[in-house]
């Protein structure tokens, strides 16, 4: 089997030695030396999305070396290979074609010798008809009432995409329609939502690619019972639809396949919001807006395929991430949207990034000898400024940040948005520039502190600076820019997977815990005495059983 470790590539070694010389370089000096730095290190997609990556610990040479690494990893070929429908998900022998769902020019996309576009178009036509019928009251509930409460039951990619996108596009929701989401197996998740609803006006969308996921099926069964208890079993046909690749399991669950919207195994769960998994979004914001989101993603797809690596937004962001993760040893990464509507974006990206690239075995089956996905965390600004930003500014290790900002808010109330924008701009500058002990001492002196106080406090009040951030600027959070933004991150994750030589499209790491839970469940329910776990697990099972008596 052909094996290569990326660490043996010439370009990798060059980056290692470049890092040794470069690591002491201060970003503020790079800015001081080059008045054009910001312009040189900014890229855009149409006028919809701008990425200023100038506040990174990189020089033009760094970027050249990073692009050499991308080329040595044959990135350009790999991009073609994904869009062409090659089976790049090698452990599952599947193509990776979420991009076909937003192939807005409708060019043929072949999988196993068959063009998948006609089927995709047919399912989108069905999705359009159904979403409009629900929105305008042509598809009614069992008792003839309009369905106004849309409940998506799913988990992981079958939840996070619809949750994040529907929240991001809340301003576009049709008046009178409300979306709810049930994901966690914790009964509280179900109870809290059902408590708010009237069965006569509720549509349940059971979203599961495999239709075998225990959380989703358990929640769906509970909701089904709740509905049937209130309206009778025949009502299920008018209040339940399924989104899945698995028609047999949908039928087995008791949903008529006519009420099923299909997608395909070439769409990964965490990449599925573009498919029928977005049905709740389409009902809330309308299919036209859903398609605008596909348009934005398509624009990013074209950019990703056509632009040279140096001016390719996802490639540049990915390679800067590689620089920090694999050369600077920074294994944490924060995404901070300064927009309330994007508050679920970090959670969405956690799955996209960490489920895709949190791997230790490369495509050849060899253990990797380098770090793969960093820990991604985040939250909405300015809330997180008052929680974890202490660590971002003064913690022992720098945390590269992506700041996402819309220039215009959907809610321009007073000067809220300008205060918000001033804050995010200040964060980037403060992280980059920092504050020396001398500057801190001068400030303390001005505020009237004594010599002793100044000498004690100046170190606490200083900031190392040289902490990196990307600024991702959108005009406004609308369906188009949101589509472009999500696709940008998808491709970034793809590029990093190529450099790390891993399969970014399986998720075998989630299986072990699921299997073991299935063994433990009967032990909790049936008081099994012969427990064969480690002493900690045995003890926890016994304690829980005792507490639940
Ligand atoms: O967590 C594992 C996973 O398979 C995710 O990749 C997926 O998004 C989620 O579970 C839900 O899977 P399904 O859509 O098949 O219910």
Strand order, sheet with most strands: 1-2-13-12-10-11
Number of helices: 22
What is the C-alpha radius of gyration, as a whole number of Å?
25 Å
Q: Which regions are unreliable across 5 or more consecutive residues at pLDDT < 50?
A: none
Describe the largest sheet: 6 strands, mixed
The coarse silhouette is: globular
Supply the key terms.
549 residues; six-stranded mixed β-sheet; globular; binds 6-O-phosphono-beta-D-fructofuranose; 48% helix; five-stranded parallel β-sheet; alpha/beta
Provide a descriptive summary of the structure in words.
The protein is an alpha/beta fold and 549 residues long. It contains 22 helices and 13 strands. It has a six-stranded mixed β-sheet, sandwiched between helices. A five-stranded parallel β-sheet has the order 6-5-7-8-9, with helices on both faces. A two-stranded antiparallel ribbon has the order 3-4. The longest helix has 22 residues, at 479-500. The model has no long low-confidence stretch (mean pLDDT 97). The structure holds 6-O-phosphono-beta-D-fructofuranose. 6-O-phosphono-beta-D-fructofuranose binds at residues 155-158, 208-210, 213, 216, 269-270, 355, 507, 510.
List the helices and strands and how they pair.
Layout: H1 10-22, H2 27-33, H3 37-40, E1 42-45, E2 49-52, H4 60-72, H5 75-84, E3 110-111, E4 114-115, H6 117-135, E5 149-153, H7 157-168, E6 178-182, H8 187-194, E7 202-207, H9 214-231, H10 236-239, E8 240-244, H11 247-253, E9 260-262, H12 279-285, H13 287-306, H14 313-327, E10 332-337, H15 345-357, E11 375-378, H16 389-394, E12 401-406, H17 416-433, H18 437-446, H19 451-457, E13 469-474, H20 479-500, H21 511-526, H22 535-548
Parallel strand pairs: 5-6, 5-7, 7-8, 8-9, 10-11, 10-12, 12-13
Antiparallel strand pairs: 1-2, 2-13, 3-4
Helix pairs in contact: 1-4, 4-14, 6-12, 7-12, 7-15, 12-13, 13-20, 14-20, 15-20, 18-19, 21-22
The structure holds 6-O-phosphono-beta-D-fructofuranose.
């Amino acid at each position: 089997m052909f094996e290569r470790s990326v660490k043996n590539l010439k370009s990798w070694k060059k980056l290692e030695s470049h890092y040794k010389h470069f690591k002491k370089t201060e970003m503020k000096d790079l800015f001081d030396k080059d008045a054009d730095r910001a312009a040189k290190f900014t890229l855009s997609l149409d006028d919809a999305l701008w990425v200023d990556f100038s506040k990174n610990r990189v020089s033009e040479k760094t970027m050249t070396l990073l692009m050499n690494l991308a080329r040595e990893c044959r990135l350009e070929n790999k991009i073609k290979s994904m869009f062409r429908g090659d089976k790049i998900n090698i452990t599952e022998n599947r193509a990776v074609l979420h991009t076909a769902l937003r192939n807005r020019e409708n060019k043929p996309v072949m999988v196993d010798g068959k063009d998948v576009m006609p089927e995709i178009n047919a399912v989108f036509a069905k999705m359009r008809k159904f979403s409009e019928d629900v929105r305008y009251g042509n598809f009614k509930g069992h008792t003839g009432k309009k369905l106004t409460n849309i409940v998506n039951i799913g988990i992981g990619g079958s939840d996070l995409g619809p949750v994040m996108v529907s929240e991001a596009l809340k301003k576009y929701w049709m008046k009178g329609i409300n979306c709810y989401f049930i994901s966690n197996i914790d009964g509280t998740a179900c109870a809290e939502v059902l408590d708010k609803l009237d069965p006569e006006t509720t549509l349940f969308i059971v979203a599961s690619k495999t239709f075998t996921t225990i959380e989703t099926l358990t929640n769906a069964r509970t909701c089904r019972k709740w509905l049937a208890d209130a309206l009778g079993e025949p009502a299920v046909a008018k209040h339940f639809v399924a989104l899945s690749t698995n028609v047999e399991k949908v039928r087995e669950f008791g949903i008529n396949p006519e009420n099923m919207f299909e997608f395909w195994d070439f769409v990964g769960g965490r990449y599925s919001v573009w498919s029928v998994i977005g049905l709740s979004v389409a009902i809330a914001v309308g299919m036209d807006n859903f398609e605008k989101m596909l348009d934005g993603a398509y624009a990013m797809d074209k950019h990703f395929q056509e632009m040279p690596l140096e001016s390719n937004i996802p490639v540049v962001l990915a390679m800067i991430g590689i620089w920090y993760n694999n050369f600077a040893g920074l294994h944490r990464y924060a995404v901070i949207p300064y927009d309330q509507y994007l508050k679920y974006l970090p959670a969405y990206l956690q799955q996209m990034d960490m489920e895709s690239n949190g791997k230790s075995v490369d495509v050849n089956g060899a253990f990797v000898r380098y770090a793969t996905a960093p820990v991604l965390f985040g939250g909405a600004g300015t809330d997180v400024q008052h929680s974890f930003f202490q660590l971002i500014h003064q913690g022992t290790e720098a945390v590269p940040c992506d700041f996402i900002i819309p220039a215009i808010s959907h809610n321009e109330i007073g000067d809220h948005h300008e205060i918000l924008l001033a804050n995010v701009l200040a964060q980037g500058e403060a992280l980059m520039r920092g504050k020396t002990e001398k500057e801190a001492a001068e400030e303390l002196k001005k505020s009237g502190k004594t010599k002793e106080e100044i000498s004690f406090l100046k170190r606490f009040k200083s900031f190392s600076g040289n902490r990196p951030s990307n600024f991702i600027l959108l005009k406004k959070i609308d369906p188009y820019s949101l589509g472009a933004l999500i696709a940008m991150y998808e491709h970034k994750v793809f590029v990093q997977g190529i450099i790390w030589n891993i399969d970014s499209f399986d998720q075998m790491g989630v299986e072990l815990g699921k299997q073991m839970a299935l063994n433990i469940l009967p032990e909790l329910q049936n008081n099994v005495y012969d427990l064969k776990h480690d002493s900690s697990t045995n003890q926890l099972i016994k304690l829980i059983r005792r507490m639940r008596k």
